[in-house]
Design brief:
The complex is a heterodimer of chains A (about 375) and B (about 525).
Chain A: E1 2-8, H1 9-19, E2 24-27, H2 34-46, E3 52-55, H3 59-71, E4 76-80, H4 82-87, H5 89-97, E5 103-108, H6 122-125, E6 133-136, H7 140-157, E7 161-166, E8 174-180, H8 182-188, E9 205-206, H9 212-244, E10 251-255, E11 263-267, H10 271-284, E12 289-294, E13 296-298, H11 302-309, E14 314-319, E15 322-323, E16 327-328, H12 329-338, E17 346-351, H13 361-369, E18 380-381
Parallel strand pairs in A: 2-3, 2-4, 4-5, 5-7, 6-7, 11-12, 11-14, 14-17, 17-18
Antiparallel strand pairs in A: 1-8, 6-13, 10-12, 15-16
Helix pairs in contact in A: 1-2, 1-7, 3-5, 7-9, 10-13, 11-12
Chain B: H1 5-11, E1 20-21, E2 36-40, H2 46-50, H3 57-65, H4 69-79, H5 83-89, H6 93-97, H7 109-119, E3 135-139, H8 143-153, E4 158-162, H9 171-174, H10 183-196, E5 199-202, H11 212-218, E6 221-224, E7 230-231, E8 243-245, H12 246-254, E9 263-267, H13 271-282, E10 286-290, H14 302-310, E11 314-316, E12 319-327, E13 330-341, E14 344-356, E15 358-361, E16 365-366, E17 378-379, H15 382-385, H16 390-407, H17 449-452, H18 465-473, H19 486-490, E18 496-498, E19 509-511, H20 521-525, E20 531-535
Parallel strand pairs in B: 3-4, 3-6, 4-5, 6-17, 8-15, 9-10, 9-15, 10-11
Antiparallel strand pairs in B: 2-20, 7-16, 12-13, 13-14, 18-19
Helix pairs in contact in B: 3-4, 4-7, 5-7, 8-16, 12-13
Classes of the chains: A alpha/beta (about 375), B alpha/beta (about 525).
């Protein structure tokens, strides 16, 4: 039984967290994430969610607090955005290195300067190399579902997972949702039993100094586990689809062109919704185009992406984060994934939006129709 | 599934490749890195420092807070043999020094002492087990004499007190009115002392200095604590019997005698002036006070002044009585403006004449005893140091006793003459006030002035148990460890253990020097200024 509701994206996420039964929540407010933890604090206050809510004075403390609670064996939750996520950076590395499971929701928002509170993906893309799994959501329903799946995967892998939503675009808009019953979620997500934990009666040493050879060995294992994470995620998504009747994959084929279609558009996050409209229009008007959305940035689904795009002549990658001096961060990831294909498609790197710049279907249509004008070497920035 | 080698390994409890070790870091003796080490240094609190009897207030309050009532009482009485009395009549030097004053209000130490003292009124002091042969005579059974006797008897000496009046107590009985010190409290406190110790009390036995030679034959040592029996009177006033001394009149009132006369002028601004005026008022007499300086400058205790004014006592400030004339059955007084020039008071302009039955002089006390100056005698109380508080009299008696004990080479655990212990006094700047919550002192109930004006019922009421607990919690315990655990919380090396059951505050925080790296956070954060760093050798 899944209850129908129309809720704000932030509230949908709070329900996803509530259903996952975290024992500890610690977070520090930041726009546009604040509503999530406000709703959670109210759920804790009312008794609807039995959890310890630790108030802190900064994001650094929030992530450090849950570092402690997870080390002690408690399922935990935190959320942040933009500058707040950047402030957590040091502990993000430690979290993954220490092999501690956690779900962190990040409401994607630009990083200053100049000051900007609107959506882009620079904040989480900057945390690409911290060893966390990263999943990007298109809708609030997807975010709610992903949180539940992420806890399951995270605890199997003993790795932390960051779940991304677009600030304001998802967090502050209402959507029709299916909210699963607690019993269904309990049936899918068992209570967390830490294989090792902080316990005064059984002292162990966590993250102590490792000599160079041991350090290398530990990181090698880490890397291998990260590769295995794709399989674990697949299993978690498959079981979720079976129990909740909603299925998700690392690379999702959202719009299909016809057999003639040799152009694909690739993006991630809530922007996919807008791009869907544009691609449908293109297909209707005789420009067959496929649309793929990428859910998983880490580990990067190289094989899945390669098999999806192997027959395309052109992939237009829509970026909302820039690695300055190279181009769109997502484009670089896509290029690397396609490098080993026998016939590599052209990759057009497009910086479609930063700092909340509006994305219109007409812009996408024009980009695809006039693709000949796009550089396949340099990053394509839009004219005003 | 087989490719999930690493994931399965974790799930099956094989942690190889993970940054976790089943071993403890306790083997790593990080304590060897330190140059400085923390240690507990129990310091003196300003309240104790200010107390003439050096009562370890933080110490007995700590025991009281932990419910160890008899231990608290014992510790208090070790230093002060009459806490039910001082809890009422001491001006509370301790409270005037309390570090909490700057935070909100001083802790009501007096009321806490009174509570504990009252609990002990029927509780015998521990008997001294070793009897000694030395006999000591104490002249005067006031607070100083009684205190001296107790501290001697505690060491097994045989003490005889000679008191010229019919009952022990001195000024406590014949000076301080019952509304400040109920007689049943005083009687029970003294009875308990006499019943607990080997002290012989001889009342109605006035001893003159001329008897010194005989006393020296019969006794090992003699302590003179006869007090100051006489009120000082200016010569000009001695011509008439309508001038009386405050002490003599107070004694008559306290003996329950009928007091002749209806209208009284009391001259003076000390406690004796207020005591006699307020007592007369309670007997239905008309009383006014003439004082040469301002009311604010009156040396009487602030609480007494406030209560006197509440009771409607008329105090004429900055006035002097310049001329007195005894006419028929009345006394005629000329009242002048007090002229204050460089702190010297003289009579200024004439203000008015005043007729009264009696003029009461409360301008000082003196002794009529005179000794051969070549002779060294041991003195105690007001006779030694001049008119002072009860606590100072008790301390003086204790000092006299301790000087005799020293001569006899008897070691007593505490000694007012040897004050080298705990020389550091914790000041407000040593405390971390962030760890304390503001909470005003209990509003101590008092009899309303309308209820108390014509009787001698005790004005200030006892606190109940809830109020006592609330007030104890306000004590900062300056310089004393309460096992609060703040240091434990901050220690980054988990190198502190708190022993909450430990009786000795110096041993409540235990440092694991094998792992303490000497960072000093515990010393910096201690709310009570207890932990200090010392060089690690």
């Amino acid at each position: 039984m899944q209850k129908k509701a129309i809720l704000l994206g932030s509230d949908a996420i709070a329900h996803g967290v509530r259903l996952s039964r975290p024992e500890v929540i610690s977070a520090y407010p930041i726009t546009p994430q604040t509503h999530i933890i406000e709703t959670l604090s109210e759920m804790v206050d009312s008794g609807e969610l039995k959890s310890q809510y630790i108030k802190v004075e900064s994001e650094m403390s929030a992530i450090a607090a849950v570092l402690g609670s997870v080390s002690a064996g408690s399922r935990s939750f935190t959320a942040s955005s933009s500058q707040g996520l950047a402030m957590m950076h040091e502990v993000l590395h430690w979290f993954a290195g220490a092999r501690l499971p956690l779900v962190l929701v990040n409401a994607n928002r630009a990083l200053g300067a100049p000051w900007n509170i609107w959506s882009d993906q620079s904040d989480s893309f900057s945390q690409r190399d911290t060893g966390w799994l990263q999943i990007y959501c298109e809708t609030s329903q997807e975010a709610l579902d992903t949180i539940i799946m992420a806890y399951k995967a995270s605890e199997q892998l003993m790795l932390p997972i960051m779940v991304m939503i677009d600030g304001f675009i998802l967090s502050h808009t209402m959507e029709r949702l299916l909210i699963p019953e607690q019993e269904m979620v309990d049936n899918y997500l068992p209570a967390y039993r830490a294989p090792y934990r902080l316990d005064p009666d059984n002292p162990m040493t966590f993250g102590a100094a490792a000599q160079p050879d041991l350090f290398y060995e530990i990181k090698k294992t880490f890397s291998a586990t990260m590769t295995e994470a794709l399989t674990v995620l697949d299993q978690c998504q498959a079981e979720f689809a079976q129990k909740f009747e909603r299925s998700y994959e690392p690379v999702m084929h959202c719009q299909e062109g016809d057999d003639e279609s040799d152009t694909a558009v690739l993006c991630c996050g809530a922007m996919t919704g807008t791009v869907r409209v544009a691609i449908a229009e293109l297909n209707k008007n005789g420009t067959p185009t496929d649309l793929y959305k990428l859910r998983l940035l880490r580990p990067f689904p190289n094989r899945e992406l390669g098999s999806a795009l192997k027959d395309k002549k052109r992939v237009i990658v829509l970026n909302r984060a820039c690695s300055y001096g190279v181009g769109g961060t997502l484009s670089q990831e896509v290029r690397a994934a396609l490098y080993n294909l026998p016939q590599r498609p052209i990759v057009n790197d497009v910086m479609i939006s930063l700092g909340g710049k509006e994305v219109f279907p007409e812009t996408i249509i024009k980009l695809v129709e006039e693709h000949e004008q796009l550089s396949s070497v340099n990053c394509n920035w839009l004219d005003q | 599934m087989s490719q999930l080698k690493h994931v399965k390994a974790i799930q099956n409890g094989d942690f190889s490749g993970l940054p976790v070790s089943a071993g403890s870091t306790a083997v790593n003796l990080t304590g060897s890195w330190k140059f400085f080490r923390p240690h507990s240094v129990i310091k003196d609190s300003p309240c104790r420092q200010a107390c003439p009897l050096q009562i370890p207030i933080a110490g007995y309050l700590d025991k009281l807070e932990k419910g160890k009532v008899s231990e608290a009482l014992k510790l208090l009485r070790d230093y002060n043999p009459m806490p039910a009395v001082t809890g009422r009549v001491c001006p509370h030097f301790c409270q005037n020094a309390c570090n909490r004053q700057e935070f909100d209000e001083a802790v009501l130490i007096g009321d806490l002492e009174r509570y504990l003292g009252d609990l002990g009124l029927e509780d015998r002091h521990p008997k001294c087990t070793n009897q000694r042969s030395e006999k000591i005579a104490v002249i005067g059974a006031g607070p100083a004499g009684l205190s001296a006797a107790v501290f001697l008897a505690r060491q097994g000496l045989q003490v005889s007190i000679f008191e010229r009046t019919p009952a022990a107590g001195g000024l406590l009985r014949y000076g301080i009115p019952a509304y400040r010190l109920p007689r049943n409290i005083l009687d029970r406190e003294i009875e308990n002392l006499l019943a607990s110790y080997n002290i012989e009390l001889h009342c109605n036995r006035e001893i003159e200095p001329t008897q010194m030679a005989q006393l020296k034959k019969d006794y090992h040592e003699v302590i003179w604590a006869p007090g100051l029996q006489n009120s000082s009177l200016p010569d000009a006033w001695c011509s008439t019997l309508r001038v009386k001394g405050a002490l003599e009149l107070l004694a008559a009132i306290n003996r329950g005698e009928d007091i002749a006369g209806q209208s009284f002028i009391v001259v003076g601004g000390g406690n004796a002036a207020l005591d006699v005026a307020r007592s007369l008022k309670r007997l239905g007499k008309q009383v006014e006070i003439i004082y040469r300086r301002t009311i604010a400058e009156m040396p009487a205790y602030a609480e007494e002044k406030k209560q006197a004014l509440d009771e409607g006592l008329l105090i004429h400030e900055q006035e002097v009585v310049e001329k007195i004339e005894s006419k028929e059955n009345i006394l005629q007084l000329n009242i002048h403006q007090a002229h204050n020039h460089e702190a010297q008071i003289s009579a200024g302009n004439f203000l008015r004449t005043f007729a009264a039955d009696y003029l009461i002089a409360a301008i000082g006390q003196e002794s009529n005893l005179s000794f051969d100056t070549s002779e060294t005698i041991i003195k105690a109380g007001d006779f030694d140091h001049g008119a002072a508080s009860v606590a100072e009299a008790l301390a003086s008696g204790r000092r006299a006793a301790e000087s005799i004990l020293e001569k006899l080479e008897i070691n007593s655990a505490i000694n007012l003459n040897n004050n080298s212990e705990n020389p550091i006094v914790v000041e407000n700047r040593h405390l971390h006030l962030d760890y304390f919550t503001k909470k005003p002192a209990i509003n101590v109930p008092e009899l309303k002035s309308s209820v108390r004006k014509d009787n001698f019922s005790e004005i200030r009421q006892s606190l109940n148990l809830t109020q006592i607990q609330s007030e104890i919690e306000r004590c900062f315990h300056c310089g004393s460890c309460t096992a609060c655990g703040i240091c434990w919380f901050f220690c980054p090396d988990v190198a502190i253990v708190i022993d909450r059951e430990e009786d000795d505050p110096a041993k409540r925080v235990l440092f694991d020097y094998d792992h303490c790296k000497g960072c000093g956070q515990c010393a910096a954060i201690c709310p009570r200024g207890v932990i200090e760093m010392e060089e690690d050798n």
